[in-house]
Amino acid sequence: MGASIEDKLFLDRFNVHETSHLKIIDGAVCIDDCEQQLCLYICPANVYRLEHNRISINYEGCLECGSCRIGCPHLNIEWKFPTGGYGVRHKFG
To answer: Whole-prediction pTM value?
Structure first.
């Protein structure tokens, strides 16, 4: 049987910048207007979490796939690539 997703994610390495490349534009939209809160489920790295009645972003583990940006029905996530030289490095094998 093949390697699990967790095993594959373990191979990824991160060079984290001090500034997030992800931002929720309006937090009230996530809590008041978004019933599904898809960002909590669509992100393969579980970057988004519901904590104390707000969505928090743990950008340090972002895989830079863009799923959150595409999946947010309210277009409420500002997503850009990390500053040059920072972000995820994928290792295959």
So the answer is: 0.81
- Is 93 domain-assigned? no
Domain containing residue 12: CATH number? 3.30.70.20
Radius of gyration of the chain (CA): 14
CB 73 within 8 A of CB 30: no
| Tens-place pLDDT, residues 3-56 | 777 777 777 778 888 999 999 999 999 999 999 999 999 999 899 999 999 999
What's the CA gap between 58 and 14, in Å, rounded?
Answer: 13
Structurally, how many domains does the chain consist of? Answer: 1
DSSP assignment of 24-63 equals ES-HHIIIII-SS-THHHH-TT--EEEETTEEEE-GGG--
